[in-house]
Amino acid sequence: MATLTVASLLVATAPADAAGTPTTTNGPCGYTSTPDDPPARPVSLPPDPEHTPDQGIVRVVVATNQGPMLLSLDRAKAPCTVQSFLHLAKSRFYDFTTCHRLTLYPTLKVLQCGDPSGSGEGGPGYSYKDELPTDLPNWPDDPTGERKVYARGTVAMANAGPNTNGSQFFIVTAQATPWLDGKHTAFGQVTAGQDVVDAISAVDRDGSDRPRDAVTLDSVTVSD
Hints:
The protein is mainly beta and about 220 residues long. About 10% of the residues lie in helices and about 25% in strands. It has a nine-stranded antiparallel β-sheet. A hairpin with a 2-residue loop joins strand 5 (about 100-105) and strand 6. It is globular.
């Protein structure tokens, strides 16, 4: 297994050379299958209507072994990302999965989930484009202007580079995350259950940032 470094965090493994012919949906989101990187759990490509819903907040209840959280997903900020996340939730892709990474560095404090294999290398067998945030404030005292403030409770996508979003996502557990540079799609917020996030943050972890006591998503349910 590759050695984890700060640069490797929040990364879902990049696809290798294609072993088959990718399939791409016809809608504006263009979800594209990754034959070389098959799904960690069987799931179809998401619906990709001619007009992706891009208004309103969708609430999702995440039941964990530490307690429930309520996520509010913003269609206007990231319509294709929300569409994909809801599809995976309704397909039970996330149910009974393990959050494989918990970082507590001064520069990066996140909980990363969304890989049914629990390895940090699994995904849904498809990828799609970035919907990068344009309204995040710059990190204070960063002369480059590249570092962005992902506020505590932000839900965002892990990726392996531009336009490689899949199923892995992370929750910012504390605002002290100046390592983030605006290259991760932010699509929601924890609006209830931040105490659960805090409890998870207190879980012991090993040298690879894997919780020693498993943190599991028992179910992810769309509530409206």
